[in-house]
Amino acid sequence: MEKTDVLIAGLGPVGAALGVYLARSGVKVTVVEKTDEVYPMPRAAHLDHETMRLLDLAGGAEAVAGNSQPLSSYEFRNAKGDLLLGFRPRAALADTGWPYTSMFHQPTLEIALREALSAEPSASVRLGVSLVGYTDGPDGVTAEIEGPDGKTQIAARYLVGCDGGQSTVRRLAGIGLDDMGFDEPWLVIDTLLKNGTTRLSTIGLQHCDPARPVTSMPMAPGRHRWEFMLLEGETPEEVMTDEAIDAMIAPFADPKSLSVERRAVYRFHAVFAERWRDGHVILAGDAAHQMPPFMGQGLCSGARDAANLGWKLAAVIKGEADQALLDSFQPEREPHVRDITEMAVSMGRIVCTQDEAEAAARDAGMMQKPEAERFDATPTLRGMASGVIEGGGAVAPSLVGKAGERPDRALGMSPFLVVAKRADAPADKGGMQIVALDEHEGEGVEPFFALMGDAPAMLVRPDRYVFGTGEPASLLTAWAAYLKTGRAGMQAAA
Distance between CA 321 and CA 269 in Å, rounded? Predict the structure, then answer.
């Protein structure tokens, strides 16, 4: 029987990124994917700066950056075109070194991640192969897979389901879903722009018209997406005809100036798996949680799952951490995802209002402020609430490399200790990488000092959240305890 450390079901962006993280950490990983090719149509549309940084550590960001464009703003406007709510990026780049928003082409990302994974000697990818069953024992999982050559078995220490909203792994594990009660049908239209046009707009628009709510979103250069909410009584067959699509697009663009690349009806959900770990089986990405698209955070949340889980699995498998560390995955990630999902649902309720009286009341309430005050900076997502100690929780900044270099990439998916001065580094570093800010003059060290305050050191987790600030030796001691128990700070004392 074939043996592997981690078996991943699903080779979408989350499964591929997780596979790269594990393989680059020296873990033997096998990925099975029921389809043979990358799905050729875009699905996810947006990546934030945190996610681009994480995908850079998995080898996918450079390809995306070359085929993406930022939004100048994200606006919610009523049927008359009045601004209800809007967001604008603070600057061209965030402190991570990446744009706040990147409207991208998902197949480009998936191809790049697959190439990065295939380059890793400890990774094996099986295309056209499905997981059909498994048994979980005291030392791991025996999985049954089926492909062109029939059925066979793989023994793995852990099985991770990255197999989407209809997850086979979740179904086989008997894990139910917690439904937040948001379920709306939308028609999604992806278009290619003709005559060399690269964009129709730099603005992401939510057209909050009770007659028919509409989303208009620039995608990668040369592409544009519209989403139209289905009205009561409409069927997918009615709204997906060429005539119906042209009529819906016409108020926003000349239908003759574009060609339809994809048309599909989706139901926007807000659901969570009741548990993300069941013995040696773990769920990540859409298999664990799904949200409506109004924050553009679905894939971003899955990428954060992969980063959180990847380094923990590697540490446990390599004997650097206790298995208890894996128990921290859902407690650390679920509150973050729920917070984003609640924001997305709130935005969705603004957009999806179809009662004219309710829409009028909504407009009046939101337009009480002067228009300039209805704009805000791009929302900052809540940081890590657990798995950190005092001074921790924020997303760590990135050094600005010279001549296009990215020092963050060289650190890999490992923790590192940031010290103000090389002399502050402890004699016993315990194998921890050290970043001494006095050796990086002119490379954007100011955001590090802003987070450190008066503390001489800051420890950064492999997933790039700040673990804590303080004395170097104390940080290393707290990190060692966290690896053993999966609990940190006030959690550990409880």
Answer: 36
Give 382's DSSP letter. Answer: P
C-beta of residue 489 within 8 angstroms of C-beta of residue 331 = no
Enumerate the β-bridge partners of residue 227: 188, 215
CB 93: neighbour CB atoms within 10 A? 16
Contact 258, 192 (CB under 8 A): yes
Query: Nearest Cα to 345, choosing from 244, 421, 272?
Result: 272
Burial class (CB in 10 A: 0-12, 13-18, 19+), 146: middle
On the 0-12 / 13-18 / 19+ scale of CB atoms within 10 A, 166 is exposed
- pLDDT tens digits, 316-348: 999 999 999 999 999 999 999 999 999 999 999
Type of residue found at 147: G
Q: How far apart are CA 488 and CA 16, in angstroms?
A: 29
Cβ partners under 8 Å of residue 176, min gap 6:
273, 274
Which residues neighbour 244 within 8 Å (Cβ) at sequence distance 6 or greater? 238
Q: Which two tokens stand for residue 27?
A: 């873990």
Q: What is the DSSP string of 434-465?
A: EEEGGG-TTSS-HHHHHHHTT-SEEEE-TTSB
pTM of the model: 0.95
**Pure H helices in 49-135:** 49-57, 61-65, 106-118
The residue-averaged pLDDT of 464-483 equals 96
245: helix, strand or coil: helix
Span 205-225, pLDDT tens digits: 999 999 999 999 999 999 999
Burial class (CB in 10 A: 0-12, 13-18, 19+), 266: middle
Task: Give the pair of three-digit tokens for residue 81.
Answer: 């075109």
